Amino acid sequence: MRLLVAAFLLLALGASALAEPVHFKDCGSAVGVIKELNVNPCPTQPCKLHKGQSYSVNVTFTSNIPCQSSKAVVHGIVLGVAVPFPIPEADGCKSGINCPIQKDKTYSYLNKLPVKNEYPSIKLVVQWMLLGDNNQHLFCWEIPVQIEG
Questions:
Q1: The whole model's pTM is what?
Q2: How many degrees, rounded to 5, is the angle at CA 64 between CA 61 and CA 66?
Q3: What's the mean pLDDT when you consider all of the chain?
């Protein structure tokens, strides 16, 4: 059993080591600072997202304020129009963050970005926000992506 756990940890560490930081546009991280963004797999930009697959998202950020809760809001921006993009878990406190969030502490937010088969093949911008108490922007980032069949 210990060998299985050790193998799993080694695999997880190896996968995270292969993740390349993604270049992003900060779209208004008013009360936080993004240290690093990883989308896996995304070896080149724009990220090519394949229908029927799920992509891991890891955001390392520091909060400038204390918060009791956090909520993720994700949009696909197509021709300037923000379209809601559903994710499996919107509660940031269930996505790698131990709430309450403390001021000046660094956190690793983890979630998945599922790409449904019914999505059109299109170029767009993914906008991902993590909102704290009173809808304050703990972080907000945007990256260009291309959904492919």
A1: 0.85
A2: 105
A3: 89
